[in-house]
Specification:
Helix content is 75%, strand content 0%. Helix 1 packs across helix 3. By secondary structure, it is mostly helical.
């Protein structure tokens, strides 16, 4: 079986899809044709590289920002679910009037 060699740009783009675009590893894996394990490794390597090259000590590190983005995505999804429930509830009670 032949091993594939990926460029740094390809790895960075794959990591960006995971971190910034919020795609899941299976989605990126299917899209790019890369093993999920590699994607997770590239993501951690990319974040470690960004942490090492981060010059602004006062600001959050890229790893912390990625964790915050993930947390905010979860909170947004929860708020959207609650909003859908409230919309259905309002429409249900509006029918009775």
């Amino acid at each position: 079986m032949k091993r594939h060699r990926y460029t740094m740009e390809f790895k960075r783009e794959a990591a960006r899809l995971l971190i910034m675009d919020g795609l899941s590893a299976p989605e990126v894996s299917a899209k790019l044709g890369v093993n999920r394990g590699l994607l997770y490794r590239w993501k951690s390597e990319h974040l470690a590289l960004l942490d090492a090259t981060s010059e602004a000590q006062a600001s959050s590190s890229p790893t912390q920002m990625a964790a915050e983005i993930e947390q905010l995505r979860k909170r947004l999804a929860k708020a959207e679910r609650i909003n859908e429930i409230l919309k259905k509830t309002v429409s249900y009670f509006a029918k009775d009037e």
